[in-house]
Design goal:
Strand content: under 5%
Order of helices and strands: HHHHHHHHHHHHHHHHHHHHH
Shape: globular
Distance between the termini: 53 Å
Structural class: mainly alpha
Radius of gyration: 22 Å
Helix content: over 70%
Length: 412
Amino acid sequence: MAQSIYMAGVLVGALVLGGLSDRFGRKAMLMWSYLQLGVTGTCTAFAPNYASYCVFRFAGGMALSGFGLSIACLVVEWIPTSHRAVTVAITGFAYTLGQILLAGVAFAVPHWRWLQLSVSLPFFVFLLYSWWLAESARWLVLSGKAERAVKVLQRVATINRRKEEGEKITVEVLKANMKEELAGLKASYSVSDLVRTPVIRHIFFCLSIVWFSISFSYYGLAMDLQNFGVSIYLIQVIFGAVDFPAKVVVTVSVSYVGRRVSLMVTLFSAGVVIIANIFVSSELQTLRTALAVIGKGCLSAAFNCVFLYTTELYPTPIRQTGLGFGSTMARVGGIVAPLVKMLDESYPSVPPGVYGVAPVVAAAVAAFLPETLNRPLPDTIEEVESRVKRKKADPKEKIPLQPQDVALQKET
């Protein structure tokens, strides 16, 4: 029950904090999430009763969503197109390292209260150094704060040893480079913008299915951890370690093959492996564990890919909102997965069958998404609509990088 309440908090956080980040900024929401994670995590460790424990866990789940979504947008909106996939992969490796370290910390600190406190206090340190982070220049310009954007860009140019180029950046230059984007801005944006126009609506529904399917199958596998006949600490390390090779492969794939194909292949592979495990005898426990680990690795790679893909498909004013709804669908998948697992007692082959079919269907749906490899980030809804229409009219058309993207790249 407590875990379900926590997942519900993650779902609500994705809905609420995603929109707030588009309104108040990526850095502001990231810092708030750090503070909320530190405070609610510490309160959880000292919770006097079960009810208060659940309340603090719910609030912690909300903050987790705000943290993850803000980090994703900051990475995508700051990193140049050519280095974006590698940077997202490194972020994913940090998450994987956390999974592995958690097993060691849990083994060393077996009491749950001290364990909870141990993983919560570091967020206060993260809060302190997050003051150094730079707000998204794209968001600042499109929010009418061009003066702040100039200062931030000049600071970045100095760090990238391009101080002279940075000094040439002015409010007028920024507005001239983003003239079309600024002209297409509305006074405000809402959730309805995700379904208002045909191309964005198409992207929204396809991504919703993909996010749901990945999380649904991922948590379906995760709930079987204790059934592999191996120490829960060891299987946690194994499930975390498999992410490293999986994410290396998908990083190379998304950088050279493309986002869409990479997502399709990882989803389809995960589904096939999970379905194949149905036909493996329960006596062959090692083989069953190996297949489950491979399936989990494919789903982790798919998570990495869909995070990057989602942020590149949505335009800046609704990017965080779109990513938030994707994360929401993932949490719905995480909530539904245990319900399907309940069928295991009466129909043992049904849960793994459903867990396997879901990513295969999602792979087929992903085929209908537009490719974003080597494409500049869209800054308005109109830009996404026109880009897809032009692509349909001329499949060989190449969209050049925008001046503001080139200015951010370090000289090589």
